[in-house]
Structure formats: C-alpha cells, structure tokens
Amino acid sequence: MAIYVVMEPSGRGERVDSVFVRDGFSWLGFLFSPLWLAWHRLWIEAALAFVVMAILSMLGEKLGLAWAGSLLSLLVSLYVGLEGQALRIAALRRRGWHDWGVVEADRLDDAETRQALEADAQADEPAPVPRIIPDATQARPAQMGMALGLTHIPGKT
C-alpha cells in the first residue's frame, strides 16, 4: 500500500481541489530529473538540477574523467528520485497550501475515495466544545495563614 499526503489550498471555496502526493521513490524523477521537476512546476529546482548536472558533466570532461562526471550526475538524479515528492510538498506549503492529512491506498483513485469519505465523516461530527480557562489575573489572592508540618493549606490556621 502506498501513502498519499493530501494537500489543500488555504482559501476554501465552494470547490476545493486537493493534491495527492505519493510518498516514496519517483522513478520518473530519477530518470528525467530536470524535466520531472519542471513538469511539477518546481522551476528553480529544475534549473538548479540542470545546471548542477551540466557543470558536473563538463568538469568530468575537462579532467578526463567522464565516468566520474556521469556518476556525480547520477547522484543528482538519485537525490531527485528520493526527495522529489518532499520537494513538491515543500513547494505547495510555500504557496500557501496546508496538509489535510495522510491517506493509505493502493491507487490514486482509492486514495481520493478514502479522503472524500473521511472528509464527509469529519463534517458530520460536531465541533469540539472549547475549554474555558479561568483568567489568572482575576483570581482571588491566596490567603496566607499559619501552617504546621509539611503541607501548607492557605486560609487554614
């Protein structure tokens, strides 16, 4: 079973489209790192991955170690494959989205169904009653009295 992180926009309108981000390794992010990042509108990350991969390849070429440059570029791709989904979630948070929760499902369709059912169940529940906390500034001052022994009971003599 896969884990999906459900993100919702901060402005709740009549129609709310949630984004489901699958937690785990991204094969397309690994194989096509800059393109995958650009596809998910991670423009800065895509440009940074492209520039770093190009610099590493050129550096390997200049030093006569083409295999080392390719290997280091492969590490960038591995990073995007492992952390690409976390980069997507961080970008959505920067844009003002918030976490709705986590859903466990086999496929995206099942995750959407489970999220809709849980959202309906939460809407049916009554709102929790707020706790009333007394204001300490309006409290009666402690009455100091004589005390014997280990315990002090204010107001008792």
Summary, kept brief:
Helices cover 50% and strands 13% of the residues. It contains five helices and three strands. The chain has helices spanning 27-31, 33-39, 43-62, 66-94, 108-124; strands at residues 2-8, 19-23, 98-105.
List the helices and strands and how they pair.
Blueprint: E1 2-8, E2 19-23, H1 27-31, H2 33-39, H3 43-62, H4 66-94, E3 98-105, H5 108-124
Antiparallel strand pairs: 1-2, 1-3
Helix pairs in contact: 2-3, 3-4
Short key terms for the protein model shown above:
5 helices; three-stranded antiparallel β-sheet; 157 residues; alpha+beta; 13% strand
The percent range for strand residues is: 5-15%
Round the Cα radius of gyration to an integer and report it.
28 Å
* Strand order, largest beta sheet: 2-1-3
Number of helices: 5
Order of helices and strands, N to C? EEHHHHEH
Given the C-alpha coordinates, what overall shape results?
elongated
What is the terminal-to-terminal distance?
A: 67 Å
Strand tally is 3
Average pLDDT figure = 83
Provide the helix percentage.
Answer: 40-55%
What kind of sheet is the major sheet? 3 strands, antiparallel
